[in-house]
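Aim 2 progress update. The chain analyzed this quarter is reproduced below.
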Amino acid sequence: MRNEIEEVGQTYGIENWSAGYFAINRKGNLTVQPTKVSTVSADVYDLVQELVEKRKLSIPILLRFPQILGTQLNRLCLAYEAAAKESGYTAGHYPVFPMKVNPRREVVEEFLREGIKQSVGIEAGSKPELYAALSLEQPADSLLICNGFKDEAFVNLALLGVQAGKRVVLVVEKLNELKMIVRCAKQAGVTPWIGLRAKLYSKGSGKWASSGGESAKFGLTTSEILECVRVLREEGLIDALKLMHFHIGSQITDIKRVKNAMKESARVYAKIRQMKVNVEYLDIGGGLGVDYDGSKTTFEGSINYSVEEFANNVVYMIKTVCDDEHVPHPHLVTESGRVMTAYHTVLVTSVRDEIETFADDIPTAAIDDDDAQVIFELKSLRDGITSKNYREAYHDALDEKDELHTQFNLGLISLEDRAKGEVLFWDICKKVSELAQRAGVDELEFDELKRILASKYLCNFSLFRSAPDSWAINQLFPIMPIHKLHEAPTDYATLVDLTCDSDGIVDHFVDQKEDKQVLELHNFEDQPYYLAIFLTGAYQEVMGSFHNLFGIPNEAQVVVDPEGRFHVKKIVPGSRIADMLSFARYDAPQAWESFRRMLAAQVAAGLLDANRADQLSKQYEADISRSTYLE
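Predicted structure tokens:
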């Protein structure tokens, strides 16, 4: 049994991408270890069963494990602490959480609560984010970094934070912003901390490499940085310049790019210090990636380094340059939001049905003497397939299928004959695929055949709402069942969501060698079959859309105690039809009244009974409180 479970675990690669947070127990169910302590482990399938059967929550359900947020934050801080101690780095580390990654209040507050000792701060890039950040209690020495393009309202809002006692840093993204900040500060009689974002020559790697480098959207050129220093001196505000900032892109896949960027940014910082400007902080932005597929490579869905290696390289490179330039080590500010949040949410969906394909066609009438020759040729191929001739039989079948459709288009065969021929062709494909897999053949045409033959499982969720990056940028997210993991999966499938959009499909899955086009699953037998989508805690919630007016799923916030018992701390109901109507600017009472008028017209025309019309009206009004998903 244990060997079987281990093999299933290898099929889904759970040990490679889960970072120690998820595993499979002896019952064949998924478990969560939110603190990475093996005894603090809870059965996710049992949790979902309780939420569905006892709490009456409908699928999909977003499971949020706040303990993972704290564990990831501690890992990040310990990595920088250890790196500083080992290399003799004399300045501190100030982590800030970028609200754009996941602005949910419970997420931000968890970081602030967990990070009191680490002086965790917040990064805001818009007025709504800044407004929310100003209301949150932060450690006294933590930072409130204000990134993004700014107007006077943004700057004045930030100045309110300064007067409220927060250490607000207004990061200048373009030259005109500095002049506006100086003007607003003088009008308010407040001096904020100022940061300058440098546009580095160095670039990151992976999907977001273009967000860094000389053509980056944000940042000041070298001449603009010098002009900012001149302006601040002229305005008597040079002492307000406290921070240098840079960012070379999110999800950096290659550690070499990190080293190059750190060397360049440290050199910029050092040269500014040598101009007798007492900059104290160096904000290295984000970029620390997540190994989504577990391959530990420079592939877009992976990274070839660990958190600890990233921190070691950052600290070592900056220290080396600063010592060479004879300037003080700067306090390091990190905005590593992705790695802090990605692991903490799991979306649980269920397979609702299997969408029929050609390969699922039922046999038609028996073949008789009147059938076309092409039918007999296909039957002969099907009956004669062996482990020695399956390749040749497949190629011949492709030719016969073309001939079948040619004859149909010429009107030479009937619709019934076409159906017989297609069933025979797909029978041949099934046998060929089975024989190729049994022989261990790894060739493109047979991989494509396996994809075509794969089942299509209809899942109760919206890809655009819960994992939009899968559609938008082909991001890979680990997906696997949360139960039956003591049984080897025997089916291959792709997943389709509920939306009326052909893009609402998941047909690429994580694998250590290359992304798979099909996912190994158990046969769907009309019993609840739950699948989980992992690593969705970063960006997916805030970037998800309301395509087809599918709303936010039900949510359960769960903690696990030292004895391995799970505790549902909070349930956040998902969107109802009423919520999504309001989002689309429909007025519910107006909709009810309009529908009642339609029913009244049917009654007046003698086409509907008055009592039945009243029942239909009440049903229409009641349905507004239903879930947007399948129930």
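The chain has four domains: 91-335, 347-355+455-577, 358-451, 588-625. The CA atoms of residues 378 and 534 lie 44 Å apart. These observations will guide the mutagenesis experiments scheduled for the next reporting period.
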